[in-house]
Amino acid sequence: MYNYIIFDIDGTILDTEIAVLSSLQKLLLEERNENFSFEDLSFALGIPGEAALSKLGITDLLESNEKWNKYLKDYFHHVKVFDDVKDTLVKLNEMGIATGIVTSKTKQEFINDFEPFGLSNYFKLVVCADDTEKHKPDPEPILKFIELSGADKSKAIYIGDTKYDRDCAVGAGIDFALALWGAKTSTGIHANYIFETPKQILEHIIK
Q: Which GO biological process annotations does it have (predicted)?
C-alpha cells in the first residue's frame, strides 16, 4: 500500500515528553518566575521550540531556546526510543520500504537529541525545521520532503502523535497514521490509521 513511510521524532520515535516539558518548566520558572504544569505546556510538543516560546510570551526567542536546549540535557536520561520502534525500522528496511523523517527539531537539535540513539542510518531523508520557512501544522515541511525525495504522495504516509502532525499531512495531501503509543489519546485527531504499537505499522505496509 505504501512504499515511503515518513516519521515524526518526538512522541513517535523518541519518548521525549518528560525531558522536553521538564526543561521548559525550568526555563519558565527562571524567565518568568512562574510554575507551569505539564498540561499547561503540552501544546509545545510537536512544534519548533521558538514557536512554543513565542506562544508563551517569551521575547528573546533565540537565547531562550538555547537555554531550553541546554536545560534539556539535564533531563536527557529520561529520553528513550519507544519499544519496538527499532525492530519496526529494521523490518521496513528489509522489506525495501523507504523511510524518512519530518521533524520540528532544527538540524542541530537533530544532531544533539536524535543521533545519539543510533537510528539515523535507517532514514533516507530528514527534513528539519530550518529546512523550511513554515512549520507544522503548515504542510510545507512534508511538501519539501516530497519534493526532495520524489516520493509518490499516494504511496506515502506520515506517522506522528499530534494534531500538528495530522494537519501537516492532510495539508500536504498524504495519509496520516496516529502513533497512539506517544499520543496516548486519539481525541480530536482524525487519522487514516491509529496504531497502538509500532509493530502495527507493518500490518498495513504492503509494497
A: DNA repair
Query: 93 — phi, psi (to 5°)?
Result: -65, -40
Contact status, residue 186 vs residue 180, Cβ threshold 8 Å: yes
Return d(Cα 152, Cα 173) in angstroms, integer: 11
pTM (2 decimals)?
Answer: 0.92
User: Residue 206: what pLDDT?
Assistant: 64
What proportion of the chain, given as a percentage, has pLDDT over 90? 93
pLDDT at 5 over 70: yes
Residue at 120: amino acid letter: S
Pairing label, strands 156-160, 193-195: unpaired
**Residue given cell 497502538 in the structure block:** 196
Q: Calculate helix-pair angle for 61-72, 17-32, nearest 10 degrees.
A: 130
Q: Residue 177's beta-bridge partner residues?
A: 159, 193
Question: DSSP letter at 10?
Answer: B
Burial class (CB in 10 A: 0-12, 13-18, 19+), 116: exposed
Cβ within 8 Å of residue 205, ≥6 positions away: 1, 2, 5, 92, 95, 97
- Residue 173 C-alpha from the chain's centroid: 18
